[in-house]
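Re: the 136-residue chain
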Amino acid sequence: KESVIWNTEEGFKLTSADINLAERQRSELFMRLNRFMQDYEYILMPVTQVPPFDVTTEYITEINGETLPNYIAWMKSCYYISATGHPALSVPAGFTKDGLPIGLQIVGRHQADVAVLEMGHAFEGANKFWKQQPAI
């Protein structure tokens, strides 16, 4: 797949200095989020920036008129959180007007994996979106 080849080739271009810088920046991002999470137990946010798209579309190239720089940019709300090392869970959270599923991402404090799972369980119990299936 071309996007995977591109991603691999980009990785091969990285120098040890690039990786060192990225690790420092990732550590700084972790610390910023960790400080924020001292006041807030959870962050609730969309899983992705777009609803599900046609299976024949390899990836989204534009959102609201903004061209995306690469194939992974459409899912940055997921990988930004993954980079912090904080636990996150995606749960069903409703449907678009066209009946497509929408997910909610629940992000918790560092090493609070069980609390995130408990919140996800409570959310699913309260709304039952997980029981509904979109028309195919």
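Helices lie at 2-12, 16-36, 76-84, 113-127.
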